[in-house]
Amino acid sequence: MSYTVSDETRRGLLASGAAVSVAVIAGCIGGSGNGDGERFHFTQEQSREEKFDPIVSNDAYSFQVVQLVFDGLYEYGEGLELQPKLAKGEPTVERDGTRYIFELEERATFHNGDNVTAADVAYSFTAPVEEETENAAEYDMIESAEAIDDRQVQVDLGDQPYGPFELATMGVTVVPKSVREEDKDAFNKNPVGSGPFRFADLSENEYVDLERNDDYWDDLDPNLSAVRFVAHDDNAGRVSDIRAGNTDAISGIPNDDWSVLENEGGVKLHSTESPTFMYVAFNCNEGPTTSPEVRQAIAHSFSISDFIESSAGNVSSPMYSPIPPVVNDVWAFPEDEYKNMLPTYDPDQAKSLLDEHAPSDFTPTIITPEGIRARLAERIATRLDEIGYGADVQILDFGTLVEKYTTGKASDYQMYLLGWTGGPDPDYYLYPLFHESQAGVNQGHYYSGSDGFHESIAEARNSADQEKRYDLYEPVVREIVDQLPVLPAFTQDNTMASRDYVSDLEAHPEVTRNPTLVAEYTNVSIG
């Protein structure tokens, strides 16, 4: 699986916020106390693409709506491990991990009353690729998917397994084939799913209204009768709204506002680590940063932990490898060992290494998007200046940044700062960001690696044996930490704030699952 560069995709490059600012729309919100007939008002962190068809929807904020309207074949529980939803138990695996047979829940129905069938599931697996949507890369390892009968679907992966399939791909969101095929444009704006909420109303670039599905096939019965989603890009505006009680809950709490809301009466905070990887990348293709000693020197020149504590300590955590801690909870790579391998703040050692291995006039160009990464770039430049070198920080819009960082030219940059978000599998980070096939697509550092480096990444992706995959990945991760083609920086938290009359709201590691309003482990209510 490969991922093309896109801004704020469900799994992709993290660079800048959405461009459209949408004012909060006045409406009936919760809090009067009965929790029955009240609309739960949720203010999103950024604007949506307004695509609510899972086959084409690819931005996190549209998918926050989608996940309440549709069910997946499998879905995340409280963490990043898939559990059966429309599927009845675990799949039968055949042909050395290249064939999966799924049995479906007999009770499952769509909002229009039609049964969820194996044909619908097969269609949901193959349509993104056949229609060449932005989600095609998530399913292009599938050779075929077909219904055996109404309740069984067979998925074949071709000649070799795909390692992340069981951890991520089989969590496909299922759509009704006949309804979608009748009018895809209409389906995108008025979708029919099998989830706990129905699509009720859409005012584009303003709000989305959902209503409880009182005929939901699952045993779960949502406490909330209605939900309104409103996008609000302005950080200060969202914080003001939750403080004033103009909304029931918001997502995306700025670091500087955390303590303000923490001490605000009537407000509760919710936070959890996310599968994000924020990093400083070095040009390993051209220029002085092709030297590992120069890369180590720059890493010695500043303290990432001090930066996080002063600039992002409320909403982020340090990272010590390209595998986010919440993903490492699933895989158990030796994170403490990686931490001890990384260069610590030592300006004398930084200067000594640069004096020996870099040109005397070394002033690296650092390209970065605005926001916290720009502040980190400026911190690096300040610390380099303190030891007699300095840096040229260029804060670029996303389009210009993409054009520059994928060239691999020293004349364009020696360092860049970006971020990536993925799922519970190391492949989501190691393949797009380090495998040679993704050079110039998802990466600009062009790291050649040691013998076997790229082969191990590819072999792990094409294995169904999770223990073997661990053994292949661990030396790759260790080499990245040791050689520093990129310097792990921090992982961002998924944060929300709610009024104190909102009960059982929990932050989920996967941003598209926020807010989880009804699940085996929670059922949000107001009153």
TrEMBL record:
CC per GO annotation: ATP-binding cassette (ABC) transporter complex; periplasmic space
GO terms of molecular function: peptide transmembrane transporter activity
Domain of life of the source: Archaea
Transmembrane annotation, as ranges: 12-33
Keyword annotations from UniProtKB, A to Z: Membrane, Transmembrane, Transmembrane helix
Residues of the Solute-binding protein family domain: 81-439
A GO BP entry: peptide transport
InterPro entries listed in its UniProt record: Peptide/Ni-bd, SBP_5, SBP_5_dom
KW Lipid biosynthesis (keyword) present: no
One matching Pfam family: SBP_bac_5
Protein name (Swiss-Prot/TrEMBL): ABC transporter substrate-binding protein
